[in-house]
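Illustration 12: SWEET sugar transporter.
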Amino acid sequence: MGDTLRLAVGIMGNAASLLLFSAPILTFYRVIRKKSTEEFSCVPYIIALLNCLLYTWYGLPVVSYRWENFPVATINGLGDSFRVFLHSHIFLVHFIQRKDNGCNHSDTCYLSFLHHSNYLSFCFT
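Figure caption equivalent — predicted structure in token form:
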């Protein structure tokens, strides 16, 4: 009964997390439609990515006992890939396409984070 309950709660948590990962879709739709990042801050997206990375690490059997936190690792791994590929692609494409080529603090912050996260991912592999 305990393992079944844990699996059911894990699946419900994964469904709720998937909805939270899809929350910025309206913002990205606006960025794509206007072809500009405007004054959107990159900080919430960076913090969400770091949160997903930490929870993915927590769910792995290296940290947890065997695979007891498998649902945590799977949904946050999906969130990691969603945030890295989709978010960074949208922000970078629309940052490069800016007509004024001005670089505000948000854009600089996001590009710097992407550079350092790519460097760190190569260091740990």
